[in-house]
Every structure is written in structure tokens, then in C-alpha cells.
Write the C-alpha cells for this entry.
Amino acid sequence: MTERTLVLIKPDGVERGLTGEILRRIEAKGYTFAELRKQQASAEQLAAHYAEHEGKPFYQPLVDFMLSGPVVAAVVTGNEVIKGFRSLAGATDPTGAAPGTIRGDLGRDWGEKVQKNLVHGSDSVESAEREISIWFG
Ligand code: DAT
Ligand code: MG
């Protein structure tokens, strides 16, 4: 079934010059960019985007990191793209992310590696719609 999902290239991916490589992988898989925009996130957007994690120990460092530089936000469409993009992205912790995935191939194994894991992808139809409205109105 055709779906849409919200993808973010996080500030580490933009800063490291990996935007093209990450977008290439998404496009090569056969997905389409319905919207694509580089932007500086606002604190309000991030509070809404990461509401499910509020109160967790990594929440504030995560928000601060996401404010540290521009992100690339995209609405990506395709058959089962929500699950498919998360499969392309790989596991949250780059150390355990499988080779062949964005996080497994490109994620760094040191420092704030779990937080700086290059990409975000929505995890359900409901979160995709919620997140698309946060980033694209
Ligand atoms: P995902 O991005 O794989 O959907 P998530 O929704 O559980 O993962 O968490 C959102 C982001 O928060 C994740 O990409 C990085 C950060 N994060 C999650 N768990 C963390 C942890 N234990 N320590 C540091 N950062 C963490
Ligand atoms: Mg998540």
C-alpha cells in the first residue's frame, strides 16, 4: 500500500556532507520525494516531534543536538515506505545497525553515537501524519 513517511537527515548527517548519499539510497530503493527542504528546526517543532520521549534522560541532549545545525526534512512516498525506510535506516544504535543500512554503514561508533544516528523515520501511519504536519504544516 502506498504510504508517506517523514524523514529527517539530522544535523550530523548534514554537517558530515552525507545528505546526497542518504537521499541517493532512498531514491535508489524506488521511493519518491514529495517534499524536501533544508531548514533550521525550532524548539517548538522539536518539542512536538519528540513529545513521546519527554522525561527520558536522553530527551534534552537530543533536542539540543537537533537544534545545533540545519536538518533536511522530507516527505517520502512509496509502497510500505514507513517500514521500508526504517529498514534502510537500520537499528537506532549504529553499533548494532546491520551493514548495508544508513546507520550501519555511515553511523559512527564513538561519542554520542546513539543520538547522532544520522536519520529519523516515522514509525507508524499515525506518527507519519503527525510528524508531516509538524515539519510541513
Ligand atoms: P528511532 O530513531 O530508531 O526511531 P527512538 O524513537 O527510540 O529511535 O529514539 C529517538 C531518538 O532518540 C533516536 O534516534 C536517538 C535518541 N535516542 C534513543 N534512545 C537513546 C539512548 N538510549 N541514548 C541516547 N539517545 C537515544
Ligand atoms: Mg522513533
Remarks:
- The CA atoms of residues 5 and 126 lie 10 Å apart.
- The mean pLDDT is 97.
- The domain at 2-136 is CATH 3.30.70.141 (Alpha-Beta Plaits).
- Residues 58, 62, 92, 114-115, 117, 120, 123 surround 2'-deoxyadenosine-5'-diphosphate (ligand 1) (CB under 6 Å).
